[in-house]
Structures are given as structure tokens and as C-alpha cells.
């Protein structure tokens, strides 16, 4: 399939597919006229890449996971072949995500307190009968 159809099928933009290709994350075939030819395996990989990027995984780790760790385009990761350094990098990335979540949660709680304080005086002023 051509890039527009592949983009729709993968739920990404054509620009994203070009970026994934530039990063070495996907390798679409080529027609004789130079147009890209995307197979279903490449579309599936693009969907996986999008999901990983949305979760904050950097492209350097995605490339390792999807390109080097998948055996010839296999659909499943060969767990015995995973480099311990890759696992360590993924665990480190996960720790950073957990820390960001904790920070955001603290900020949400602070905002909730602030809003509750703002709403408190207004509620009591509204509930008092006019004099």
C-alpha cells in the first residue's frame, strides 16, 4: 500500500511514517518509480512505534527493541536475545516516567487544594442570606 493508505491504517500521519523511516524504525519497500510500498507488517510496526512514542519511550530504545531485538520482522520479541543493557535502559526510562507521574500528581493535589480554598469562601458567601 502507498503512504497515505498506510498512514490511515496505522493511525499516524504520512509525515510520521517518513520520520520513522528516517530514524531506521521501519523500512518500507519501494516501487520502481520510487514510491514507498508499505506491507501490513510495516503498518503494524508503525502502530507499535506510535504507542511507544506516546508512552515516552525514546526512538533510540524503540529502534533497539523493534529493529535489533525482533528476529527478521517476527511479531514477538525473543526474550532470550534481549540485551541486559537494553533492559536496564528500559527500566531506567520507566523509573523516570514514574517520577514524572509522582511530580504531576503532587501538582494536581496542590491545584485541587488551591481550587478548594477558592471555592470555600465563595460557597460560604453564597450560602449566607443577604442582609
Which properties best describe this structure?
131 residues; DNA-binding; MerR_fam; DNA-binding transcription factor activity; DNA-binding transcriptional regulator, MerR family; DNA-bd_dom_put_sf; mainly alpha; 5 helices
Task: Summarize the SSE layout with pairings.
Blueprint: H1 3-10, H2 14-22, E1 29-30, E2 36-37, H3 40-54, H4 59-68, H5 84-127
Helix pairs in contact: 1-3
Task: Please describe what this structure looks like.
The chain is mainly alpha-helical and 131 residues long. It is built from five helices and two strands, in the order ααββααα. It has helices at 3-10, 14-22, 40-54, 59-68, 84-127; strands at residues 29-30, 36-37. A two-stranded antiparallel ribbon has the order 1-2. A hairpin with a 5-residue loop joins strand 1 and strand 2. Helix 1 (3-10) packs across helix 3 (40-54). The radius of gyration is 24 Å and the shape is elongated. The model has no long low-confidence stretch (mean pLDDT 84). InterPro entries: DNA-bd_dom_put_sf, MerR-type_HTH_dom, MerR_fam. Keywords: DNA-binding. This is DNA-binding transcriptional regulator, MerR family.
Q: Provide the helix percentage.
A: 55-70%
The total strand number stands at 2
Low-pLDDT ranges = none
| Structural class by secondary-structure content | mainly alpha
What letter string, H or E per element, gives the SSE order? HHEEHHH
Query: What quaternary form is this?
Result: single chain
Which word captures the global form?
Answer: elongated
Distance between the termini: 75 Å
Strand order of the largest sheet: 1-2
What Rg do the Cα atoms give? Answer: 24 Å
Overall pLDDT level: 84
- What summary fits the major beta sheet? 2 strands, antiparallel
Amino acid at each position: 500500500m502507498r503512504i497515505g493508505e498506510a498512514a490511515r491504517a496505522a493511525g499516524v500521519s504520512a509525515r510520521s511514517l517518513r520520520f520513522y523511516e528516517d530514524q531506521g524504525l521501519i523500512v518500507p519497500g519501494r516501487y520502481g518509480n520510487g514510491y514507498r510500498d508499505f506491507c501490513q507488517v510495516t503498518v503494524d510496526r508503525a502502530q507499535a512505534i506510535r504507542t511507544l512514542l506516546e508512552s515516552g519511550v525514546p526512538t533510540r530504545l524503540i529502534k533497539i527493541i523493534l529493529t535489533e531485538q525482533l528476529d527478521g520482522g517476527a511479531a514477538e520479541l525473543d526474550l532470550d536475545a534481549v540485551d541486559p543493557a537494553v533492559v536496564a535502559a528500559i527500566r531506567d526510562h520507566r523509573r523516570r516516567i514514574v517520577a514524572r507521574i509522582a511530580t504531576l500528581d503532587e501538582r494536581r493535589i496542590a491545584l485541587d487544594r488551591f481550587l478548594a480554598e477558592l471555592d470555600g469562601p465563595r460557597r460560604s458567601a453564597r450560602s449566607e442570606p443577604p442582609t
